[in-house]
Amino acid sequence: MFFHVTFDRFEHTGETKRKGDPMHRPHVFATALIMSVPMVSCADMGENDQEDMDGSGAMQEGGAAGDAPPMEADALGAWLAAGNYLDWSAESAVHASTGPHGTVRTFVNAMLETSLASGQSAHPQNAAAVKELYKGTDVVGWAVEIKVSPESNDGDGWYWYEEVNGKVLVDGMGIGVCTDCHKKGMDYVLTPYPLQ
Predict the structure, then answer these.
(1) Long-range interactions of 145-152: CB distance < 8 A, separation 24+
(2) Nearest to 105, CA basis, from 57, 76, 60, 141
(3) Mean pLDDT of 158-183
(4) Which of 112, 133, 135, 153 is a Cys-bridge partner for 141, taking CB atoms 3.0 to 4.6 Å apart?
(5) What is the pLDDT of residues 65-77, one digit of tens each?
């Protein structure tokens, strides 16, 4: 079931790719994506993750997985390259970042968008944002933040990832260079809302 859902989602997002994107041939990359997804069993999950199972083996919406990306560098890199975030709400255009990321476009998952829209002072666990990083008109990398616990714990409750030109620069929890900048935002999120 997991592979079928992934393939359907891939097919859907494959239709929204930018011209010139190598992912425009979903039949080639779907196989690569399926082969790169690690198998997860209940033994690999924490106690809280198992409580979110609905008996069918699938995670319930809003559960530990929700629509948050994976938090392991190789799996996240493949997830990003497959464009799995492209159906999330996004800023309307590429623009200069107010931080160190250069030229960007930010996407937010449903959990983060709902939280931003309601003006919550703390975002829920599994709230996530993906920032596309550009050189000219080409996406050359991503910066990702995922809230992994109910409390932010001075930024330690957030997972941070950044990849540029295929090289992972940041991968981990509570990364100081990330939290030092993002602590200026609402619960470590600097993206203005409504999305511009």
Answers:
(1) 145/178, 145/182, 145/188, 145/189, 146/68, 146/69, 146/71, 147/123, 147/187, 147/188, 148/71, 148/173, 149/125, 150/124, 150/125, 151/122, 152/122, 152/187, 152/188
(2) 141
(3) 96
(4) 133
(5) 458 899 999 999 9
Separation CA 156–CA 175 (nearest Å): 8
Q: Which residue has the tokens 């997804």?
A: 37
To the question of pTM greater than 0.90 for the whole model, the response is no
Question: What gap in Å lies between CA 194 and CA 196, rounded to an integer?
Answer: 6
Q: Read out DSSP for 88-133?
A: SEE-SS-EE-SSTT-EEEEEE-HHHHHHHHHT-SSPPTT-EEEEEE
Give pLDDT tens digits for 8-58: 333 333 333 343 443 433 333 333 333 333 333 333 333 333 333 333 233
